[in-house]
Amino acid sequence: MESQSTDSVAVARDAWSVPEVMRRIREAGLGISDSGQVVHRPELHEPGHVLHLGRGTLTVYLYSGRGARTRDAAGLDTTLHGLPTLDTPHYIISGNLIAVLVTPNDATVERVTNALTARHTQGPP
Fold it and tell me: What confidence tens digit (pLDDT) does each residue in 67-119 have?
């Protein structure tokens, strides 16, 4: 029950959680599973949660707020250098979330991006 109350608080605060990311990806019609793996990137101050998404991975970095996320996101090099390859990272920044998606499927990139950004680009209900 604790994760449900934690998720409710995250939604109320307009903040992402790993279960909420997974729910939104599933609602977009994609299969996703939590690997249980945690990774670290030197340019990001939060740990990343590795999720398996089809033939790719989605690593989710969650921040306590947009300010901390904004500071870390400013240091990311999101420029595409050369032609895209199967391991080209796609960055998705939304609310308190930085997500790094690596997949060979452009349609998956679009669906995941839409699923993770729509929540934070809509106006008031």
Answer: 899 999 998 888 777 666 678 899 999 999 999 999 988 899 999 999 999 86
Residue 79: predicted pLDDT = 79
- In whole angstroms, what separates CA 35 from the centre of its chain? 14
* Nearby residues of 54 by Cβ (< 8 Å), 6 or more positions away: 30, 31, 103, 105, 108
Under 8 Å between Cβ of 99 and 116: yes
CA distance 20 to 54: 18
Residue whose tokens read 């939590």: 34
Count of Cβ atoms closer than 10 Å to residue 64 Cβ? 11
SS3 113: helix
